[in-house]
């Protein structure tokens, strides 16, 4: 055999000039389509095949295209080529003479049927007489099937875009490989609800691994499978209540995210990608990265699509289980005193494969468990609003909660300035940990890893429990008694907790009802009937905001009002209370005033000041865009700044708005701007930031720290910066249109800033902006100053006001590299 291949090798190189001929003939014999009752067997009849320099080979059954990279459906194998994958791959049919020589031409597998169960020689692929596509191993056992028999199938065809279809005589789809993605997406392919891209278990093993990407509320989400799964990336946002992503489509130039109520063809959000001149594919790889590859004479890596926060250490498998990642370097956990006996590397020569506990954790010996404290260590999944993390808890309670639960493997505690109120996460499996950098993440974090004290050693004082000789009767007796007492105590505790919780809930209910009557006297309470007639039975709709719809109305005294009718959801109620309390107590010329409210049965309404000119977006993006001159735009920016400054710094309680966008800025008859819709407002006690557990706000305006959980009013400063750029440039930051050269305004601004050509971006509709070029540029620079990733570098709103007034001549130190690069959050 070895001799034969040597001879073959010699033969091949000696007469390689003939190979093109053979290959060309071979390709010309391949069709993109097959009829019913077609059988292919992997054995000599399938030869000639194509073997590549790395030893991999393909056996094309169908090929679409005859020049350059082309899609093919067939068998694929890697050395030693005794196991085969029925798959769709891209092969270069062009430079046939080079195919056996050039490694940049390696076939790229983009879909496969049997990744978890490869087939051997003599396996058959059959497009049966009744329309089923079946893969059988040599022994005749079906390994995989499309299950399409009896649906009237007629042809099997591979399309130009790489989609393998089973069609009926009317060319209707019965089955499509695009609906069964494996680890890759092709141009035009969508990842729909319920679909997953699952990575290989390793670079050389096609078996599905633990990492997967799926489409969830708000966008793309990447998980490591565990029970329950742990989220490590999400570009989503939960803009309540109705944004729920349903599919993500890979298009030329962008990965588009569509929600339930998207206009057809217009994505709600997208991730910009380099556009393609030829073939491209996205592949979800075994390290958890989603990578874009493109063809330009050979395959090239183009972009890593998932931007995890804060850096690559936030990939769940980067340092294996229990490994701690710091600047890409892995290490095993050690006690503060340097004791490294609790964890050992899985492979001392490859620390990135992770670490294991020296003594397995045993639920039976729960008493000899203790927690190894690692300060300044965090975990990747904090951004998951759905994880059952416990909020508003102190370190000690978090640790105790882990010690009490057998399946908990660590207590991960994350907190803001006040360590007695943090969030606590108790995972049942530990993937890579990371060294925390509070200067970047804006939170503090500690990890307490559960370890088992070896039974033979006396347990250290931390896990103190009565000394006992293992195996001795008295020890067992004590254990049994201990367990019994433990159970009884736990039972009592549970009853106590339940009783308390009930009482508390009841208390809260009463309190809530009372609150409705205690709203500050300046705010009037209206009956539902009054408002119904004021709005002529909710006839004229002004807009749709977070949690409700806004209608125009007129009170009996002739005053025009805007009535916001809240959707009746549990959340809406909380929100309603927040709105009444917040808006009711805040009065400022640049903030929309609350006149009154109504609460009756399920009806919850807010009565707001009516602002005649509507919201800012219609004036800067809509058809009316030409109407606003530079002075007006400048005043609007100044008004927004004053409104926000008041919210942040001047009113009794610090208030972060958290959903600043042009839709929430209203203009009165004189084009004075008023910040409205405190629907998402979250009160922040002075000198204390708030740990948010849910993402809120609107894509395009979200500050990058939404990923980190710690949100301060500086998130508004960021959104303000976005709005200012939009007002000056007359376009949205996030333009969901493929015609746009660059999807993100901020990315463009970043480019132009480097080239010192910011004026290129001025709104062409604004006739006199050129005449005020210096002012406009200065305002843009101020906006850029507000957009820095590091929220602590952003100015406060009062500083912004001073700069706009001209009463402060702050030197802003702007560096375009400090801005968020093109990414999902822009
Ligand atoms: C499939 O059948 C059609 C006629 O029904 C025939 O024209 C065509 O050549 C067949 N294709 C193959 C690949 O045999
Ligand atoms: C490819 O085909 C040649 C004969 O054309 C055969 O000798 C070789 O073993 C085949 N390669 C594989 C991987 O089956
Ligand atoms: C494949 O089939 C051929 C006959 O067609 C037979 O000689 C060979 O042993 C078979 N190989 C395997 C692995 O079943
Ligand atoms: C076909 O049906 C079998 C048995 O019901 C199932 O295991 C398999 O996943 C199905 N195949 C596909 C591609 O859905
Ligand atoms: C591939 O990975 C799976 C699961 O991780 C494992 O069971 C299998 O043995 C691996 N196969 C090879 C060839 O290494
Ligand atoms: C939210 O979605 C429901 C359907 O799921 C729809 O009836 C309702 O009108 C939507 N609300 C808003 C505010 O869009
Ligand atoms: C992708 O879009 C660019 C322009 O944005 C265009 O030049 C290119 O031809 C397109 N590629 C394909 C494959 O359509
Ligand atoms: C998955 O494994 C196959 C076979 O080894 C390989 O061709 C492919 O490139 C791998 N995919 C990834 C994403 O690593
Ligand atoms: C392989 O292809 C690349 C890209 O076209 C080319 O630069 C390189 O010279 C080729 N290598 C060989 C050995 O032909
Ligand atoms: C920290 O939070 C706790 C509970 O929320 C509170 O009792 C305590 O006063 C706070 N400490 C500081 C310094 O704010
Ligand atoms: C124990 O922790 C696991 C996850 O770590 C969780 O799913 C389970 O609900 C917890 N059990 C109790 C009783 O809290
Ligand atoms: C946390 O770790 C970072 C480096 O990752 C270090 O710069 C910082 O000083 C540490 N902070 C504390 C409180 O130990």
TrEMBL record:
It holds the Pfam family B_lectin. Its EC number is 2.7.11.1. It catalyses: L-threonyl-[protein] + ATP = O-phospho-L-threonyl-[protein] + ADP + H(+); L-seryl-[protein] + ATP = O-phospho-L-seryl-[protein] + ADP + H(+). It comes from the Eukaryota. The chain crosses the membrane at residues 479-501. It is found in: Membrane. Its main location: membrane. GO terms for molecular function: ATP binding; carbohydrate binding; protein serine/threonine kinase activity. Residues 1-24 form the signal peptide. It is an enzyme of class 2 (transferase). GO terms for cellular component: membrane. One of its GO terms (biological process) is response to other organism. It is a single-pass type I membrane protein. Keywords: ATP-binding, Disulfide bond, EGF-like domain, Glycoprotein, Kinase, Lectin, Membrane, Nucleotide-binding, Phosphoprotein, Receptor, Serine/threonine-protein kinase, Signal, Transferase, Transmembrane, Transmembrane helix. ATP binds at residue 564. InterPro entries: Bulb-type_lectin_dom, Bulb-type_lectin_dom_sf, G-type_lectin_kinases/EP1-like, Kinase-like_dom_sf, Pan_app, Prot_kinase_dom, Protein_kinase_ATP_BS, Ser/Thr_kinase_AS. Belongs to the protein kinase superfamily. Ser/Thr protein kinase family. This is Receptor-like serine/threonine-protein kinase. It comes from Platanthera zijinensis.
């Amino acid at each position: 055999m070895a001799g034969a291949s040597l001879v073959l090798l010699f033969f091949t190189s000696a007469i390689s000039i003939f190979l093109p001929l053979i290959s060309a003939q071979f390709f010309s014999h391949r069709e993109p389509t097959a009829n019913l009752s077609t059988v292919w067997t992997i054995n000599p009849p399938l030869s000639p095949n194509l073997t590549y320099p790395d030893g991999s080979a393909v056996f094309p059954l169908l090929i679409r295209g005859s020049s350059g990279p082309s899609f093919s459906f067939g068998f694929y194998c890697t050395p030693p080529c005794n196991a085969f994958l029925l798959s769709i791959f891209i092969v270069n049919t062009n430079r046939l003479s080079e195919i056996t020589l050039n490694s940049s031409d390696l076939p790229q597998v983009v879909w496969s049927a049997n990744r978890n169960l490869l087939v051997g020689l003599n396996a058959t692929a059959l497009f049966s007489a009744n329309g089923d596509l079946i893969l059988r191993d040599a022994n005749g056992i079906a390994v995989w099937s499309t299950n399409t028999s009896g649906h009237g199938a007629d042809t099997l065809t591979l399309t130009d875009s790489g989609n393998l279809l089973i069609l009926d005589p009317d060319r209707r789809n019965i089955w499509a490989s695009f609906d069964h993605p494996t680890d890759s997406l092709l141009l035009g392919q969508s990842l729909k609800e319920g679909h997953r891209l699952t990575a290989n278990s390793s670079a050389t093993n096609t078996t599905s691994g633990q990492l997967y990407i799926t489409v969830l509320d708000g966008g793309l989400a990447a998980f490591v499978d565990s029970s329950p799964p742990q989220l490590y990336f999400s570009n989503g946002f939960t803009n309540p209540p109705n944004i729920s992503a349903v599919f993500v489509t890979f298009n030329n130039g962008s990965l588009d995210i569509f929600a339930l109520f998207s206009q057809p063809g217009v994505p709600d959000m997208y991730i910009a990608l380099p556009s393609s001149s030829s073939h491209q594919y996205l592949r979800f790889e075994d390290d958890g990265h989603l990578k874009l590859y493109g063809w330009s004479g050979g395959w090239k890596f183009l972009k890593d699509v998932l931007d995890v926060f804060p850096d690559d250490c936030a990939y769940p498998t980067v340092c294996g289980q229990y490994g701690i990642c710091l600047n890409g370097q892995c290490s095993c956990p050690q006690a503060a005193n340097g004791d490294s006996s609790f964890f050992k590397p899985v492979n001392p020569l490859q620390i990135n494969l992770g670490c294991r506990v020296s003594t397995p954790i045993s639920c039976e010996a729960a008493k000899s468990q203790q927690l190894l404290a690692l300060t300044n260590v965090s975990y990747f999944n904090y951004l998951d609003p759905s994880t059952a993390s416990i909020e508003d808890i102190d370190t000690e309670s978090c640790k105790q909660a882990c010690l009490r639960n057998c399946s908990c493997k660590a207590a991960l505690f994350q907190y803001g300035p006040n360590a007695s109120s943090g969030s606590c996460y108790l995972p049942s499996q530990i993937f890579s940990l990371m060294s925390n950098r509070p200067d970047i993440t804006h939170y503090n974090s500690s990890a307490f890893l559960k370890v088992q004290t070896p039974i033979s050693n006396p347990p250290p004082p931390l896990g103190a429990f009565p000394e006992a000789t293992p195996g001795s009767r008295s020890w067992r007796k004590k254990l049994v008694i201990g367990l019994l007492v433990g159970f009884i105590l736990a039972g009592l505790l549970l009853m106590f907790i339940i009783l308390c919780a009930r009482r508390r809930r009841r208390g809260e209910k009463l309190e809530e009802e009372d609150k409705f009557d205690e709203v500050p006297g300046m705010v009037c309470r209206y009956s539902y009937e009054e408002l119904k007639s004021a709005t002529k039975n909710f006839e004229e709709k002004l807009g749709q905001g977070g949690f409700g719809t806004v209608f125009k109305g007129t009170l009996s005294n002739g005053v025009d009002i805007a009535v916001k009718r809240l959707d009746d959801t549990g959340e809406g109620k909380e929100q309603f209370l927040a709105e009444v309390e917040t808006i009711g107590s805040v009065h400022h010329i640049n903030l929309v005033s609350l006149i009154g409210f109504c609460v009756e049965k399920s009806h919850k309404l807010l009565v707001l000041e009516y602002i005649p000119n509507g919201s800012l977006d219609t004036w800067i993006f809509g058809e009316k865009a030409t109407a606003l001159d530079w002075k007006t735009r400048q005043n609007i920016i100044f008004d927004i700044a004053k409104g926000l400054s008041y919210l942040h710094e001047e009113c009794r309680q610090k208030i972060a708005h958290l959903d600043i966008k042009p839709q929430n800025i209203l203009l009165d008859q004189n084009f004075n701007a008023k910040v409205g819709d405190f629907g998402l407002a979250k009160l922040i006690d002075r000198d204390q930031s708030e740990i948010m557990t849910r993402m809120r706000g609107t894509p395009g305006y979200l500050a990058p720290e939404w990923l980190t959980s710690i949100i301060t009013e500086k998130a508004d400063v960021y959104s303000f910066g976005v709005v200012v750029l939009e007002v000056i440039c007359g376009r949205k930051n996030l333009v969901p249109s493929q015609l746009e050269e660059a999807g993100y305004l901020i990315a463009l601004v970043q480019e132009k800033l480097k080239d010192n050509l910011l004026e290129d971006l001025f709104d062409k509709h604004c006739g006199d902006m050129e005449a005020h070029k210096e002012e406009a540029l200065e305002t843009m620079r101020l906006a850029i100053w507000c957009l820095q990733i590091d929220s602590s570098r952003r100015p406060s709103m009062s500083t912004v006001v001073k700069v706009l007034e001209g009463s402060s001549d702050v030197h802003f130190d702007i560096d375009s590299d400090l801005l968020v690069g093109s990414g999902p959050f822009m």
